[in-house]
């Protein structure tokens, strides 16, 4: 299903305070802010591992869209005998969508996973999100970002308790990738890092410790691969399908570079590259003219139905 593109300004709205309720179980309740494609994957992953999940979205329409996406994925699992109807109902009963930050009270960890349009907007909006989260959770609740090209020290430096903040990057698809990248800020204490390690083990993920650096490991590798694939295509060396097949069949990639670009969103890939280029000044991070041209034409991939490939209304590739 294609994702509705909306402004994320709504995530920064201030909401009145309320009494906090702390769960007695260290991992009883998980919060997710932003339930786009990756936010949905993180939500499903936590719920399928028995955790209560509350996700924040900017409108009731976006909440409805997320639940429709959950239904579609679970129904597909049922069709493939990977899940029963009762298991589907049990998992969905653990998920709650809301526009109210007060519902994060009692969460043991809250993961920000929004989609932004530019580096400058992204930093300021995420800072407001972090402050909104902090207002309603306890002092030892972990606050994490799934962003890879923004550093957690900058995002958390205005909080009252930045020592519990980390970058927790789930690779997509989060339900299948076996690793998570974890980045400490200059403020992060050992107890917060150890708690995140335990959380990752609960989700059957291996923690990859990463020093704080824009792009961490995964994005610094994947973004240039997509960029170089665009150069190869522009030079006429190979076609889209052939370049993707080379990486999938030759190197075991689950998706080719163009399929990855369509999945992440071409605007997201351009933003990654621009952030990395701004940080490091290396021309290998300078976004391909082809990527920029496609973004200008709103050919963003799965979410708009057209990218390097064409997709149906449910996000499945047509050709």
Please give a handful of descriptors for the protein shown.
alpha/beta, 11 helices, 43% helix, disordered N terminus
The Rg value, from CA coordinates, equals 19 Å
Task: Calculate the mean pLDDT score and round it.
Answer: 89
User: What percent strand?
Assistant: 5-15%
Number of strands: 8
The helix fraction, in percent, is: 40-55%
**Globular, elongated, flat, extended or rod-shaped: what is the shape?**
globular
Number of helices: 11
Order of helices and strands: EHEHHEEHEHEEHEHHHHH
What would you call the structural class? alpha/beta
Main β-sheet, spatial strand arrangement: 3-2-1-4-5-6-7-8
Organism: Aureibacter tunicatorum
Protein name: 3-hydroxybutyryl-CoA dehydrogenase
GO molecular function, one term: 3-hydroxybutyryl-CoA dehydrogenase activity
Keywords: Oxidoreductase
Give the helices and strands, then pairings.
Layout: E1 29-33, H1 37-48, E2 52-56, H2 60-79, H3 85-92, E3 95-98, E4 109-112, H4 119-136, E5 142-145, H5 152-156, E6 165-170, E7 179-184, H6 190-202, E8 206-210, H7 218-234, H8 240-251, H9 257-264, H10 266-280, H11 289-296
Parallel strand pairs: 1-2, 1-4, 2-3, 4-5, 5-6, 7-8
Antiparallel strand pairs: 6-7
Protein name: 3-hydroxybutyryl-CoA dehydrogenase
Pfam families: 3HCDH (PF00725), 3HCDH_N (PF02737)
Organism: Aureibacter tunicatorum
Can you walk through the features of this model?
This protein is of the alpha/beta class and 319 residues long. The chain is 43% helix and 12% strand. The chain contains 11 helices and 8 strands. The chain has an 8-stranded mixed beta sheet. Helix 10 packs across helix 11. The two termini are 16 Å apart. Keywords: Oxidoreductase. It is an enzyme of class 1 (oxidoreductase). Pfam families: 3HCDH (PF00725), 3HCDH_N (PF02737). One of its GO terms (biological process) is fatty acid beta-oxidation. GO terms for molecular function: 3-hydroxybutyryl-CoA dehydrogenase activity; NAD+ binding.
């Amino acid at each position: 299903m294609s994702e509705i593109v909306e402004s994320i300004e709504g995530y920064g709205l201030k909401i009145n305070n309320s009494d906090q309720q702390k769960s007695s179980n260290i991992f009883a309740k998980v919060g997710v802010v932003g339930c786009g494609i990756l936010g949905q994957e993180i939500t499903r992953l936590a719920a399928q591992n028995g955790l209560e999940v509350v996700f924040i979205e900017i409108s009731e329409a976006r909440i409805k869209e997320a639940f429709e996406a959950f239904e579609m994925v679970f129904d597909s699992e049922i069709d493939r005998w990977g899940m029963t109807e009762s298991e589907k109902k049990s998992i969905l009963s653990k998920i709650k969508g809301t526009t109210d930050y007060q519902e994060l009270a009692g969460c043991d960890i809250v993961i920000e996973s929004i989609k932004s349009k530019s580096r400058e907007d992204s930093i300021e909006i995420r800072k407001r999100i972090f402050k909104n989260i902090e207002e309603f959770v306890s002092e030892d609740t972990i606050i994490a970002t799934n962003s890879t090209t923004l550093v957690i020290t900058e995002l958390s430096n205005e909080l009252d308790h930045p020592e519990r903040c980390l970058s927790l990057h789930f690779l997509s698809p989060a339900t299948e990738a076996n690793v998570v990248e974890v980045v400490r800020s200059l403020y992060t204490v050992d107890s917060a890092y150890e708690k995140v390690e335990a959380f990752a083990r609960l989700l059957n993920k291996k923690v990859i410790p990463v020093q704080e650096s824009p792009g961490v490991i995964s994005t610094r590798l994947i973004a240039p691969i997509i960029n170089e694939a665009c150069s190869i295509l522009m030079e006429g060396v190979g076609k889209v399908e052939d370049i993707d097949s080379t990486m999938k069949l030759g190197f075991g990639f689950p998706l080719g570079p163009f399929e990855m670009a369509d999945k992440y969103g071409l605007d997201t890939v351009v933003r990654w590259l621009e952030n990395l280029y701004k940080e490091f000044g290396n021309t290998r991070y300078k976004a391909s003219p082809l990527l920029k041209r496609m973004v200008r034409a709103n050919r963003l991939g799965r979410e708009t139905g057209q990218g390097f490939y064409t997709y149906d209304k449910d996000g499945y590739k047509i050709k």
